[in-house]
Amino acid sequence: MQDKEILTAEERAIKCAAFALDKKALDVKVLEIKKISSIADYLVLATGRSDRQVMAMADSVKQSMKPFDRPIDMEGYEQGRWVVIDYGDVIVHLFLEEVRKIYNLDELWQRAPQIEIPEEYLWENKGA
Asked: In which broad location class does this protein mainly occur, judging by the first location in its UniProt entry (predicted)?
């Protein structure tokens, strides 16, 4: 049996963001919350335009993270409106646009420092 590659929580959070971005996620943020909350060390927030896109983002994160980590739990997948994937120290929130606005986790966690996502993973501002 092959050992999993060992990554820090921050590296795994960035990978989760990258795998959501692979499915054209919008407004992706990685927030470091370890100094302001005990629920996790990092939150990843991302938005999709449709329930099918949110589900595709969840599939991408879950499948692509297998070499690094397995989720403790995943909720909301069947509806595709707000999917939460819990990796313990990293929690991924994948939203439909209107659901993200309603629950406004961005404002709730506004004190949390935002971790920069490497340019190579970003797709929105690349020449189209």
From this structure: cytoplasm
